[in-house]
Design brief:
The protein is α/β, with parallel strands linked by helices. The chain folds into three domains: 231 residues, Aminohydrolase, N-terminal nucleophile (Ntn) domain (Glutamine Phosphoribosylpyrophosphate, subunit 1, domain 1), CATH 3.60.20; 135 residues, 3-Layer(aba) Sandwich (Rossmann fold), CATH 3.40.50.10490; 148 residues, Glucose-6-phosphate isomerase like protein, domain 1 (Rossmann fold), CATH 3.40.50. Helices cover 36% and strands 24% of the residues. The protein is built from 18 helices and 25 strands. Helix 8 packs parallel to helix 12 and helix 13 packs parallel to helix 18. The longest helix has 20 residues. It starts with a strand and ends in an 18-residue tail after the last helix. The protein binds fructose -6-phosphate (F6R).
Length: 577
Amino acid sequence: MCGIIGYTGKKNIAQELVVGLEKLEYRGYDSAGIAYCEHGKLVAVKAVGRISELKKLTEVSRPDSACGIGHTRWATHGRPTLVNCHPHLSYGGKFAIVHNGIIENCKQLRAFCESRGVSPVSDTDSELIAHLLELCFDGDLRRAADKVAEMLKGSFAVGVLCSCRPNEIYAFSSRSPLVIGEGKNFCALASDGNALSGVDTLVFLKDGESALLRPSGAEYYRKGKRVNPPAAPFSSASALSVKDGFAHYMLKEMYEQPEAAARTVAALSDVRLRGALTFIGCGSSYHAGLSVLPLAEHVLRKPSYACLAGEFICSERVKRRGTTAVLLSQSGETADTVAAALEAERRACRTFAIVNVPSSTLTRVCKRHAVTRAGPEIAVATTKGFTSQVIAVAAMLTRGQTADSVKRLPFAMEKALAAAETQEAEEAARLLAISPDVFFIGRKADYGVALEGALKLKEITYINALGISSGELKHGSISLISDGTPVVVVHTDPSLREKTLLTISSVRARGGFVIGITDDSDVCAASDLAVRIPHCDPFLSPAVSVLPLQSIAYRAAVLLGRDVDKPRNLAKSVTVE
Ligand code: F6R
């Protein structure tokens, strides 16, 4: 979701900015642009669609300055058009800005601009920031930016160029990630440090901080006073990566799962999760929380919950001291999850983040954190992010025999990936690709996996899929099942065999076509089509049973010719609430 890049002190600035934007592509976007100063005037170059379009436009750009800002936009206020695309120029052309976040009082600010005779040309909230800067400018950029920051309500990370200071970038942020990098004779800014090349140190701007970037280094400010925030050495987590011969990042990342799981178990086996747990996350991360809930309750013997981050912030559910809020997030930047972490802190819960990106916002907001070792995930639809979260929690909860089973999971995952290559999996994908509606059902640990299977199919094929607890089907949704409706049944727990068989027969009695994802011979025999997965502890099975579901969704998406790695409307990192 929206990405910011900026450099000062780099030759071939236009090309450098485009390379940076390519590294931010994974966040999801629908237009992109850059701005720099040429012969004392600010110039913005923009393109709707892929960065390759912007690249074509900037191939021969050789501005006389070595300073510029760039942006990938994921539309929130207004459609993805050239005029809505960043960078935005101020009415008099003095400022160019890029912005990530949401300005909540944009209506009032728009009215304010209009009352001063300035008519914004785009539908965005971001453009207003450029105009406000020019309206507040009295020759001192920092003073103008401070004034504007005070006027803004909401979340924002902003990079500013001013035509009067063509080699400087000003940056300020609140509730939206922005990192400043310093290298030899240049300075940089980005929404994600991994997008920066050649930097030696990184400083993560805190809420209310600002930075003035020059090629010689950055100065930091808080409330108008110089501050010296701690700088971290830059470690390139970024095998920001190549497809290694795979057709898509998603496919590559699916196959990386056993290794990611093994690395995660090795790194986290000594970390402990205790007490009553509330797992909090969004999308697949929430599903990971649901999938490990039965294990947590079984091991800890305490009531545990899984809660959507967006619901947690408006519910009263967890108020007790002693509860540990486990914030699950691949990116560590999801705005709803960050808000939930802040709310959990306010409610005096212990907060524990499980993220895949070291130094991400959640690691700074939560009291404790653990980092999964999935490596960079580029495909928008998560695969190894989900399984590493499941494995991380399993590793931190278990000891003795069960911990040994956790260590063996990567082998079971290898086998499950092989099962996902069978004729049956291919047949399932073909059937789903031509079905308007698909059901995914499961219970206990299989419930979260069923939801995850449905989400994977929806997001990359655009087929309507419903994930539902097996037991719930008869309470209404079964009315949607008719001749040939595919129902994917996830079953890994022997204690539920009779119940699953009963559900299968009630689905088949209504003409439903059952696709079993299971290690159970009876369930295989009762299904119309079955993908047989290796047997493992039913509390740990989500890391295994989800793999054929990912693979089936992937194949169906390829059959339909979808943009697998960058599905429409989706962003990798959802940084607005
Ligand atoms: C689905 C997917 C999303 C994310 C969700 C939370 O494939 O990737 O549902 O799981 O947006 O993102 P993180 O885990 O980064 O907080």
